[in-house]
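To: structure subgroup
Subject: Chain for Friday's discussion

All,

I'm putting the inputs and outputs inline so they're searchable in the archive.
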Amino acid sequence: MHVHYEPFSAEVRDDPYSFYATLREHAPVHFAEGVGAYCVSRFEDVRAVLRDAERFSSDAMRTLLLGAPPGVDPQSDPVAAQRMLAFAQALPFPLESLITSRNLIAEDPPRHGPLRNLVNRGFTPRRIAAWEARVRAVARECMAALRTRREFDLVHDLAIPLPVTIISEMLGVEPARRHEFKQWSDQLVAGSTGSGWNSDPIESGLAGAMRSLCEYVQGVAAERRRQPGNDLVSLLLTAQDGEVALSDAELAFFVALLLVAGNETTTNLIGNAANALLRHPAALARVRADRSLVPALVEEVLRFDSPVQFVFRRSTCDVDIAGARVPANSHVVVLLGSANRDERHWGPTAASFDVGRDTTGHLAFGLGNHFCLGAALARLEARIVLDELLDELAQLERCHERVEYVDSFLVRGPRTLALRRAA
C-alpha cells in the first residue's frame, strides 16, 4: 500500500491522527521525501529510539535551532548552509560562539549531562512546588475576568497569559515586557516549525525575533551579573562545583527554549484539555464529580492530544527499525503523538478519550536523557487551571465547531477557542 505522509503539511497539521493510524498499520518506518527523514510511528519503536542516545543523536535538533529546516545537512545542502549563516550573522554574538555553544535539546552524552545538571537546579521539585500558590492566584485572576463576560477566547484569555506570566516571573522579566515575550515565542514557533519552516529566516521574521530576544537576554544577563537575584537567570549564570556557567549565547538559546516549551506546551495542553472536555461531556461530568481525577485528566490529555507531536534524531550508524533499514546519518522524525495512540500498546480504545485510563509510560514529554525539563511545571499549571475551570466549562459551549490549530507542525493546540455561556 502506498502511504503518503509529510510531517510539514497543512493537512497533517489539521488532523495528524488519521495519518498516524495509516503509518502504524502499513508503514511503521516511512521515508518522507519532503523533509528527507524517516518517520517512526509505533510506540515500542519510538520508545527504543528515544532511549538509544548512542545510535540516535539529538544533534538533529541543531539545524532547527539555527534557522535551517529540520532534516537537512548543511554540509551537503548549500541553501541550508546559507540560511544558517544568515541566521547566525543576524544575532548579536560572534559566529564562533554559536558554533561551540551548548544547547540542551541538541546535545548528546557526555556534553549533555553537565549542562542538564546545571539547568536542572532551576526546576527541582521543591522550586516548582513553591510556585503552586502563585499559579493558582494567576489562574483565579484570569477566571475572575472571564466570569464577567458572556463570550471569551479561552486560549487568549487564560491558556496564554497564565504560562507567560509564570515563566516571565521565573526569569525575572518585568511585566511591561511580557507581551514581547509572547510575540517572540509565536514568531520562533511559526518561523521554525510552522508556515515559515522552509523559508529564509530573515524574510520569515525568525531571525529578527531571535535577535530581539538575544539582545534582551544580554541586557538582563549583564544586570544579573552586577546584581544577582532569586530568579532563574541569576541561577543559570552562577556555576557551582566545577560547573561551566552558561555563556550569553547559551543563555539566550535556553531562554528561547523556555519560551517555546514553557509557554507553548502549557498553553496547548490547557487548550487541548478544554477542547477534549467540551467534546466529551461525560468525562467532564466525571471529573467535576471527583476532583481527585484531575491529575489523571492531565495525563490523558497529554497522551490523547500531545502538545508536542514529534522530535528529531539522527542515526549515527546503519540501524534496523521495525524491519526497515535506516542508513547512517539519516534524520529520523520520532512521532510522539502517534506512539501515544498506538493500539498495540494502549489497546483497542487507544483513539478514545478516557480519564480512567492507566496512562503510565506515555511519551508526551519524551524519554531518557531528553525527558522534558519543564514537565513538572506544565503538569502543575495544567492541574491548577483545570481544577479552577471545570465548573465553568459545564456552563459553556463553543462558538465555532471547527478548531483552527496553531501555526506549527511540531506543537499542537487550538489557536483560538471561542466560548460563550449557554443560553
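Points worth raising on Friday:
The domain at 10-421 is CATH 1.10.630.10 (Cytochrome p450).
The radius of gyration is 21 Å.

D.
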